[in-house]
Amino acid sequence: MSAYYADEKQDKVDVEVVTTDGAVHDAVWGDIDGKGPNYRGLGWARTAVVLVKIQIGLGVLSMASFLDVLGLIPGVLVIIVVGILTTYTDYIVGTFKLAHPEVYTLADVGQLIWGPIGREILFVGYWLYLVFVAGAGLLAISTALNAVSDHAICTALFTLVGAATVMLIASIQTLDRISWITWVGVMGIMTSVITLTIAVSQRDRPYAAPQTGPWDKQLKLWGDAPFVDCCAAVAAIIFSYAGAPAFFSVVAEMKNPRQFTRSLLVCQAVVISTFTIVAAVVYHYCGVYLSSPTLGSAGGVIKKVCYGFALPGLIAGAVLNTHIPAKLLMVRFLRNSEHLANNTKVHYIVWFSCIAFNASISFIIAEAIPVFNNLLSVVGAFLATPLSMTVECLMYMWEVRRKDEQPTMRGRLMYGWNFFIFVLSLFAIGTGMWASAMAIKGDIDKGNLLKPFGCADNSGFHPAS
Predict the structure, then answer these.
(1) Residue 391: closest CA among 128, 122, 28
(2) N or C: which end of the chain has fewer CB within 10 A?
(3) Domain ranges in the chain?
């Protein structure tokens, strides 16, 4: 491995500088002297919780349905392998940030590696990814509100209520001050999926299955779905782990960025275990009788309970994915100015405008692609895979070449490993985009698509086979 990744080298990186007047000069935030918000307040434990909440929230809600496509054994293996691969690419984020403290987002990575063109491409791609994820969060919020209220009002209005709530909370200026919602969110999501798992295991047959007469869960140890469906499922699984694009912004707000790896390992241990266990257990008991999202699979009162527990977590996820891209825009507009880290009128106007703009775009996305699994597949293939795997491998290879050191055998192997993941990610992008488009077309052909900006109840939606 390149010396760039060696721990002893990391300790020599100047992550921050203390000025003569006692202020901390950060490479991103400038002077942090108490006159404005402290953008470096996250400890490693709260960072781990923020990372978990970025990862867990949407993907886990449909993970069991991917096993119905891939089969139980291949599906579990894909969940675990993708988790391991993304843990490695997430690790690259932390080490790259230590070597280049001025980096705040993937856009800054693009500037370093490819210049202004690379910066603009990754800036737009990263921003789009986050607002799409927030849009998926708003869609899930509307589903939860429909479930707990028995579809009291039009679904589009529920999405609008979710967007307004998210916009209000996301406008809090620092991750440190909104990290409390990630604790609530993680506990809510975990409680909901545990409740679902217990509930489906106690029923004689799934809620959506025939309640009288013979029935068959149609469990598949080995999937027999068409290749295109398998590609869509893999793309959605990659999306479920694709927190890397947002991790740069989280590291930038840590008190000690060198502790990122510790936070990451805790996060990924929780995430991989949760995804695997929940998917396997729920699929075992429900089989093909799964709803989208999965929390509706228990039906009746249990569906309301599950969505009630999940609602804070869904809001928390949408808040993070509205807050982070809004801050991305704010830093882009105010960087190197006195307004960035000071409570000036310009600071507040730019900040609240960025929040409102991002929430509005996410609302439009949620209503334009109203089928949850389809939205996950689109985001996974088009944005999540290139931004959470492809770019990270390119970062590693660029850094190794930049060092221009005599390669060792270990270094060659690591370079080859990153090149392999890079090629694998390109294959996943191509097949995933094709599969997502075909899935949406297939739903339209079957008359199975919820209408954009419609009022229909989406909490009991069951994809047609």
Answers:
(1) 122
(2) C
(3) 3-210+217-445
**Residue written as token pair 């991790």:** 247
Q: What is the CATH number of domain 3-210+217-445?
A: 1.10.4160.10
298-346: pLDDT as tens digits: 777 888 898 899 898 889 889 988 998 898 898 888 877 777 767 788 8
3-state secondary structure of 17: strand
Q: Give dist(CA 331, CA 328) in Å, integer.
A: 5
Q: How many CB atoms lie within 10 A of CB 261?
A: 17
| Contact by Cβ (8 Å): 447, 366 | no
Q: How many CB atoms are located within 10 Å of the residue 227 CB?
A: 10
Residues in the chain: 465
Compute CA 435 distance to the chain's CA centroid, rounded to the nearest angstrom: 20
pLDDT of residue 384: 86
Q: Where are the alpha helices (DSSP H) in 150-226?
A: 155-170, 175-202
pLDDT value at residue 422: 95
| Under 8 Å between Cβ of 425 and 385 | yes
Q: For the chain, what percent of residues have pLDDT higher than 70?
A: 87
Instruction: Take residue 125 and report the two structure tokens written for it.
Output: 């791609």
Q: Give the model confidence (pLDDT) of 341-390 as tens digits.
A: 677 888 889 999 999 999 999 999 888 877 767 777 788 888 889 999 99
- Omega before 226 cis (within 30°)? no
Closest to 311 (Cα-Cα) out of 289, 290, 291, 293: 293
| 331-355: b (≥16 Cβ within 10 Å) or e | bbebeeeebbbbeeeebeebbeebb
* Range list of H helices, 242-298: 244-251, 260-286
Nearest to 17 by CA among 106, 102, 91: 102
pLDDT per residue as tens digits for the range 263-289: 999 999 999 999 999 899 889 888 888
Cα(129)–Cα(358) distance, integer angstroms? 12
pLDDT above 70 for 63: yes
The pTM (predicted TM-score) of the whole model is: 0.79
Q: State the Cα–Cα distance between residues 440 and 375, nearest whole angstrom.
A: 9
Round to whole Å and give the CA distance between 248 and 456. 38
Answer whether residue 201 shows pLDDT above 60: yes
How is residue 412 written in tokens?
């060659």
DSSP string, 383-423: IIHIIIIIHHHHHHHHHHHHHTPPPPHHHHHHHHHHHHHHH
**Interatomic CA distance for residues 255 and 16, integer angstroms:** 10
DSSP 447: T
Location of structure tokens 């990263």: 126
Three-state secondary structure call for residue 32: strand
Calculate the CA dihedral of residues 187, 189, 195, 198 and round it to 10 degrees: -110
150/124 Cα distance (integer angstroms) = 38
pLDDT tens profile 123-159: 898 888 888 889 988 988 998 898 888 888 888 899 9
